[in-house]
Specification:
α1 crosses α4 and α4 crosses α12. The mean pLDDT is 97. The chain is 32% helix and 21% strand. The chain folds into two domains: 271 residues, Zn peptidases (Aminopeptidase), CATH 3.40.630.10; 166 residues, Alpha-Beta Plaits (2-Layer Sandwich). It is of the alpha/beta class. It is globular, with a radius of gyration of 23 Å.
Length: 448
């Protein structure tokens, strides 16, 4: 079915790759506010070229949300959520080729954003373009939502959602990421943890001074370290009072699903050069932590001199960036209050808490019929069942959508993709087959 469509995809693979390269060349680093309007215009043009009606939604103080749609009067509607922004590419010296000059090597396309999420967005748009160019009727109605702030917490997406709830209603949705695991088996992710991202700041002096004065003057660096030490114990339990209150445990259906999942413990130990996982976790306990536990992670600490050689200095200021991954039953605003109360109760009233971003967790049920639709499509295009993960340990704004559409996250990346890291890449074969899978998902949906 739809042989002319898939033939077009294969015959025009080079053209779809060039379209992806054009998008990657725009350095859409949301954290720096770079290239977002230009990319929004390009994405809108790509949707129009694929035969969709489009609109750019201007967001107060934020990047445009680009939507596309085509109503063919079908019984079912498929929605796509993607984003055109990317993570910063630093440190640049760790890249084998410039991050915003995409390059093909060894059957892979290298560049910032190819795996997260410009490759997936482009593959989905080109699957639709194949229908248009072959004059083949779409078997389902189509909707697209593409934002430009996912990598900084989708700060302004709620404004769009509040005004456009009806647009989000669909029978199924494909979320922004996905790919193959370390064994080359395709994975599906049904949920995302929430996130609470903060910066703690301590200022103890009016300026940096000679380190000999450490005998009489306070240290911002030590003050911050002492505050950090109060957040988590040696067993990696988070010690903020009430932090774990209200957490929803994994359901029986989810726990049953975990039994079928192989986390490839030994292979990943070698990959990460570790002898054991945190606290010796293994087997079912490792899985339950991976899918069901919140975290408190230090992303980076900044204070004093960080250059080569020595510099004897007593820093006036110290900061740390921390992300908390949240599970169902937790809310970032609540954790913010508890963090502030925790620090104050221990005398750290001078530690400033800067709240950058946050949102709660969300999931699609493991036994939802749309999950079966996507799996059936994957079997047709990739020849095997998906590894179905109840949720991802990462975060995203799924909570804004899950009231209106069941989402499944599958995509064109793989274990080697290195999203958020130097030398990000995708397999060109995965990019091709991901387009085929979108066609097949639409076919399966039309018979649902």
């Amino acid at each position: 079915m739809f042989e002319s469509v898939t033939t077009f995809i294969d015959d025009n693979l080079d053209n779809s790759i060039e379209a992806l390269k054009k998008l990657v060349r725009i350095p859409t680093v949301a954290a720096k506010g770079e290239g977002l309007s230009e990319a929004a215009d390009l994405v809108e043009k790509m949707l129009q070229d694929a035969g969709l009606e489009t609109k750019q939604h201007e967001i107060t103080g934020g990047a445009p949300v680009v939507t596309g749609w085509k109503d063919v009067g079908a019984k079912r509607t498929l929605l796509f959520y993607d984003h055109y922004d990317v993570q910063p590419a630093e440190p640049f010296d760790l890249w084998d080729s410039p991050p915003f000059e995409p390059e093909i090597r060894n059957g892979r396309l290298w560049g910032r954003g190819v795996a997260d999420n410009k490759g997936d967005a482009t593959s989905r748009i080109w699957a639709l373009k194949a229908f248009k160019e072959t004059r083949t009727n779409l078997p389902v109605n189509i909707k697209f939502v593409l934002e430009g702030e996912e990598e900084i917490g989708s700060l302004h997406l709620p404004e769009y959602i509040e005004k456009n709830k009806d647009f989000l209603k669909a029978d199924g949705g494909i979320w922004e990421f996905g790919g193959a695991d370390i064994n080359g088996i395709q994975e599906a992710w049904l949920g995302l943890k929430g996130v609470f991202f903060v910066e703690l700041e301590v200022v103890r002096l009016s300026r940096d001074v000679h380190s000999s004065m450490a005998c009489t003057l306070p240290s911002a660096a030590y003050r911050l370290v002492w505050a950090l030490n109060s957040l988590k114990n040696m067993d990696s339990k988070i010690t903020i009072d009430g932090f774990y209150d209200g957490i929803k445990p994994l359901t029986e259906v989810e726990l049953k699903a975990l039994e079928k999942i192989d986390l490839n413990e030994e292979k990943l130990k070698k990959e990460f050069a570790i002898d054991e996982y945190l606290n010796g976790l293994t087997g079912q306990a490792l899985k339950e932590a991976y899918y069901g536990e919140p975290t408190c992670n230090i992303c980076g600490i900044t204070t004093g001199y960080q250059g080569k050689g020595s510099m004897t200095v007593l820093p006036a200021r110290a900061t740390v960036k921390i992300d908390f991954r949240l599970v169902e039953g937790m809310h970032p605003d609540d954790i913010h209050k508890k963090l502030r109360k925790h620090l104050d109760s221990l005398g750290f009233t001078d530690v400033k808490v800067i709240y950058f971003e946050g949102y709660p967790a969300a999931k699609t049920p493991v036994d939802h019929p749309f999950v079966k639709i996507v799996n059936a499509a994957n079997k047709r295009t990739h020849g095997h069942d998906l590894v179905v993960h109840p949720t991802s340990p990462g975060s995203g704004p799924l909570y804004l959508f899950n009231e209106y559409v069941p989402m499944v996250s599958v995509g064109c990346s793989d274990f080697l993709g290195k999203a958020h890291s130097p030398n990000e890449s995708i397999s060109l074969e995965n990019f091709r087959k991901a387009q085929h899978r979108i066609v097949t998902i639409m076919d399966e949906m039309s018979r649902w």
